[in-house]
Amino acid sequence: MSTPGFEYTLTRTLDAPVDKVWAAWTVADNYGTWASAEEVVMDARPGGTWSSVMVIPGGARIPLSGGYTEVVKNKRLVMGMNVPGRDEPVLMTIDLAADGERTQIVLSQTCDTAEERDQAEQGSNFLLDGLTAYLATA
């Protein structure tokens, strides 16, 4: 069953084993390094919460928070992000598939409007670019 909305899906093959990719998304110090985030707190388990302060180009700081609805180690991470003025968190799904020493990542999200989708997709591409660069040096 799909919810009405505007969806996007990004797929990339990362040059790192799946356990390294998983740790990049679920270990606070790792995530902060590649996602331009500070004060990162992560409790990556169903019902657990996360928070961070995103530092965007130009120096603006944006506090973010949310929770985890589904956590399957090295396979699937469903994270919700709290959005001001919205009752339900915005969910982002990350699916990982091991391919030897490489990992396929599929990141998907459904938004309420085309504009939100376009902004979220741009932000997710920025995140995946940071992740790719981080994994190349990690």
Could you describe the 3D structure shown?
Pfam families: AHSA1 (PF08327). Belongs to the AHA1 family. Residues 15-135 form the Activator of Hsp90 ATPase homologue 1/2-like C-terminal domain. InterPro entries: ASHA1/2-like_C (IPR013538), START-like_dom_sf (IPR023393). By secondary structure, the protein is of the alpha+beta class. The protein has a single domain (6-137), classed as START domain (Alpha-D-Glucose-1,6-Bisphosphate, Chain A, domain 4). The chain is 29% helix and 43% strand. It has 3 helices and 7 strands, in the order βααββββββα. A 7-stranded antiparallel β-sheet has the order 1-7-6-5-4-3-2. A hairpin with a 5-residue loop joins strand 3 (49-55) and strand 4. The radius of gyration is 14 Å and the shape is globular. The mean pLDDT is 93.
Annotation keywords:
Alpha-D-Glucose-1,6-Bisphosphate, Chain A, domain 4, 138 residues, 43% strand, single chain, globular
Overall morphology: globular
Mean pLDDT: 93
Unreliable residue runs: none
Radius of gyration: 14 Å
Oligomer: single chain
Could you say what the CATH architecture is? 2-Layer Sandwich
Please identify which CATH superfamily we are dealing with. Answer: START domain
> What is the helix fraction of residues, given as a range?
25-40%
Q: Count of helical segments?
A: 3
| Series of secondary-structure elements, N-terminal to C-terminal | EHHEEEEEEH
Give a quick account of the main beta sheet: strands, pairing sense, barrel closure: 7 strands, antiparallel
Q: Could you tell me the number of beta strands?
A: 7
Separation of the first and last Cα atoms: 38 Å
- Spatial strand arrangement across the major sheet: 1-7-6-5-4-3-2
Number of domains: 1
- By secondary-structure content and strand pairing, the structural class works out as alpha+beta
CATH class: Alpha Beta
**CATH topology heading:** Alpha-D-Glucose-1,6-Bisphosphate, Chain A, domain 4
Strand content: 35-45%
Pfam families: AHSA1
Family: Belongs to the AHA1 family.
Domain Activator of Hsp90 ATPase homologue 1/2-like C-terminal: 15-135
InterPro entries: ASHA1/2-like_C, START-like_dom_sf
